[in-house]
Write a structure and sequence with these properties.
This protein has helices at 22-40, 45-69, and strands spanning 2-7, 10-15. The chain is an alpha+beta fold. Strands 1-2 form a two-stranded antiparallel ribbon.
C-alpha cells in the first residue's frame, strides 16, 4: 500500500519500506526522469533512436573491455 501527496512543488510517496524493492524503485524513478527529459527534448524519434544505439554500443564496448581486462 502507498500514498501520494502533492505538497507545494514536491511529490511525496509513502510506502512500507519492506513492500518496495529499492533498486526497482530507483530504476522506476530514473525512467520517470528520462521521460521528462524526453518530453522537453527537441530531438526527433529518429535522432533519439540513433543516439540510443550509440549509447548502447559504447556501453557494450566498455563492458567488453572491462571483461577482457579481468581475464
Amino acid at each position: 500500500m502507498y500514498t501520494i501527496a502533492f505538497d507545494n512543488k514536491d511529490i511525496v510517496i509513502r510506502s512500507d519500506e519492506q513492500s518496495v524493492d529499492k533498486k526497482v524503485l530507483t530504476n522506476f524513478l530514473g525512467l520517470i526522469e528520462l521521460e521528462q527529459i524526453r518530453k522537453r527534448s527537441k530531438l526527433t524519434d529518429e535522432q533519439i533512436e540513433v543516439l540510443s544505439k550509440e549509447i548502447n554500443q559504447r556501453a557494450w564496448d566498455k563492458m567488453k573491455n572491462n571483461a577482457l581486462m579481468t581475464i
